[in-house]
Amino acid sequence: MLRIAALLRRAFSGRNPSKPPVSSITEKPTNFNPEDWYIVETSPGGNERNFANSKTGEVTWYTPEGMTAEEILAIPDANKYWWTVKDVKRYMKEMAKQKARNGGRDWKDAK
Questions:
Q1: Under 8 Å CB-to-CB from 58, ≥6 apart: which residues?
Q2: What is the pLDDT of residue 3?
Q3: Cα angle: 28, vertex 31, 32; to 5 degrees
Q4: Is the pTM higher than 0.85?
């Protein structure tokens, strides 16, 4: 009983005045809006793919850095290549291995 009271007291004690109010915090712009991304087949049959962002111009041979499997699956036409989040995660692991083999070299480095 005392532990619960201590936890509640700590949770509802005065807010930290040094932190700015939530309304004043600006959100960082994100480039992970799946609608902005598209998949480009770079080989017959779609075995090799590039990911490109129509708004930022970013292009990658691998899966977009920081994007989740759910976000990748939400990219238009992604269901042409993967049906489930598990399939996307498997592909992401393959691409991570390939990126490691290539020393992190990506599309922007090939120019």
A1: 31, 52, 64
A2: 63
A3: 105
A4: no
38's enclosing H/E stretch is strand 37-41
CB 39 within 8 A of CB 50: yes
- H helix or E strand, kind and range, residue 71: helix 69-73
Cα atoms found within 13 Å of the Cα of residue 72, Cβ hemisphere only? 25
Quick one: pLDDT band at residue 25, thresholds 50, 70, 90?
Answer: very low
Tokens 């480039």 belong to residue:
31
- Contacts of 106 by beta carbon, 8 Å cutoff, 6+ apart: 60, 61, 62, 99
Report how far apart, in Å, the C-alpha atoms of 10 and of each of 15, 41, 87 are: 10, 54, 43
In 47-111 the beta strands, taken as DSSP E runs, fall at 49-53, 59-60
The two most distant CA atoms of the chain are separated, in Å, by 67
